[in-house]
Amino acid sequence: xxxxxxxxxxxxxxxxxxxxxxxxxxxxxxxxxxxxxxxxxxxxxxxxxxxxxxxxxxxxxxxxxxxxxxxxxxxxxxxxxxxxxxxxxxxxxxxxxxxxxxxxxxxxxxxxxxxxxxxxxxxxxxxxxxxxxxxxxxxxxxxxxxxxxxxxxxxxxxxxxxxxxxxxxxxxxxxxxxxxxxxxxxxxxxxxxxxxxxxxxxxxxxx
Length: 207
Known about the structure:
Layout: H1 2-27, H2 34-41, H3 45-51, H4 55-66, H5 70-79, H6 85-102, H7 104-114, H8 123-148, H9 158-178, H10 188-202
Helix pairs in contact: 1-2, 1-7, 4-7, 4-8, 5-6, 5-8, 6-7, 6-10, 8-9
């Protein structure tokens, strides 16, 4: 009986998350309430609060799901145990695109995040800004680790390379979302990520 209860709870949690994504896509993040999500999911408000403390907690879960491939590279950068951090970073980006192509909910939520035009005072906007900064910190750690491992020269411009990487990946994500038929995850995306990898390995040396 306990096992069935746990399975039911997980099913309810997934139902709530799916409903939240549908409502966010229509009404936007800031204009959506937990009551509306509960109604869309066909559950009580109590069920919502059993699984999520508030809307921000729910958004955190969705964000972590979209960008889950970064967990491995972040852990590797923290521990300093990965010998090929640049290779792992490239694999992480490829896993991100493949995960988005295989999981419609992740893709829908990414579209919502990227197209979010809420006020800068909105909590969801501030949360996204915070996570983008965290992503920038992860890339910076990876490049510093690559320098320590001898993959990049000591004169490597970490700051400029990090900004370039962020702009490259952000632009690639937006382009892929708009024209998925032009950017396949088996051919064009890997080729473009290889170009980024080679650009990082051979450029950005401080003069």
